[in-house]
Amino acid sequence: MFEGGRLLEALRVLSNAYGPPAWEEDVVGKLRGMTSEVVERSWRDNLGNLFVKVRSGSGPRVMMVAHMDEVAMIVRHVDDSGFLHIAPLGGLDARVLIGQRVVVHGNGPVEGCIGVKPPHVMTPDEMKVVPNVRELYVDVGASSRDEVRALGIGVGSYVTFPPNFAVTSGTRVVSKALDDRAGCAAAVEVSKELHGLGSAPELYAVFTVQEELGLRGASVIVEQVEPDLAVVLECTVAADVPGTPPQDHVTRLGQGAAIRMMDSTMLTNPKLVRWLTGVAEREGISYQLQVMTGGGTDAGRIHLQRRGVPTVVISTPCRYLHTPNLMLDLRDLEAVVRLTAAAALDAREALKGP
Ligand SMILES: [Zn+2]
After folding, report:
1. Cα–ligand 1 centroid distance for 234 (angstroms)
2. CA 214 to CA 216: how far, in whole Å?
3. Average pLDDT, stretch 64-80?
4. Which residue intervals of the chain are DSSP H helices?
5. Which of 34, 58, 83, 180 is 20 to 30 A away from residue 189, measured at CA?
6. For 188-210, how does the pLDDT look when each residue is reduced to its tens digit (9 = 90+)?
7. Ligand 1 centroid distance, CA of 125 (Å)
8. What is the pTM of this model?
9. pLDDT in tens, 321-342
């Protein structure tokens, strides 16, 4: 059984919090509570990004980054019969939305579901067609526009998946929003581990907004911290499932922290990859290298700021990204924490010339 009780508890609390893009307040509140004992200075910027200065120190300034938002939906129309028509916030596949339970955020959280025509009344042709998210609707049980309004729900209301965190077989967790509350939990844990050390670099944990809409929050964080090294903590694709050949797995659950060499937003400096894999090997931390032609992380914005910011991405492999039921292995998350802490302590080496 997994021993990291504090890390597991942080992951549970953070994953059950609500964080649709641009309304990450619930997650901010949880993170403020979790970091209250390690914070030297903290602020939020005009976009809502949360900055936690964990410690001063000699040597390079290291900035950990994890995004607070999760994929969600927004109400774009309420019809006369009280159905809510929705638009996606982030990359959502209609196939995983159909029939799901959701929470609509009105005066309070309101339970609802994404309706679907039952097979009894579908034509054979209709059964073959995957609808667009814009064709889907949320049913909160109201029968008129006025009933919906009385719940505090209208155009612009957020729709999220309900909290559903569970530990499955021993070391594995299934939940909504693990992308990227796993990164948030890792940043909190590393902050706690390095806060009280006698000698460690200057350290910041930055929790960004609106990553799922195109890395928006991360666009403005570098000028506020001016880091020497950025470490982005993410969740990444683990497609080690039936029907997917090994060359398309990207990463595998239980095989360690994923060190990203490439995605569509950043090609990691090979020198930094060599340094990071060297740290992992020296410390006996299991890791896997990943190359993807699609996808991206906040690193895509961060490394292009100012005169360029040395940036690495360390991820927890995760199945079923952007669904209500993501799955990760806690041993991988623990490897992410250990590797990030070891990397921060070794940051001076990373920044040495070729
Ligand atoms: Zn993410």
Report:
1. 5
2. 5
3. 97
4. 5-16, 25-35, 94-97, 124-128, 145-150, 178-195, 222-225, 270-283, 299-302, 330-345, 347-350
5. 58
6. 999 999 998 888 899 999 999 99
7. 36
8. 0.95
9. 999 999 999 999 999 999 999 9
**Best CA proximity match to 183, nearest among 216, 214, 225, 211:** 211
Q: Tell me the average pLDDT across 64-70.
A: 98
Which of the following is catalytic: 189, 211, 212, 234?
211
Q: How far apart are CA 329 and CA 182, in angstroms?
A: 11
Please list the residue range(s) of the chain that carry CATH number 3.40.630.10. 5-70+164-350
In angstroms, what is the span from residue 55 Cα to ligand 1's centroid? Answer: 26
Give the per-residue SS3 of 134-190: HHCEEECCCCCHHHHHHCCCCCCCEEECCCCCEECCCCEEEECCHHHHHHHHHHHHH
Name the architecture of domain 5-70+164-350.
Answer: 3-Layer(aba) Sandwich (3.40)
- The reply to whether 37 belongs to the active site is no
Fold classification of 72-160 (topology level): Elongation Factor Tu (Ef-tu); domain 3 (2.40.30)
Give the model's pLDDT for residue 124: 82
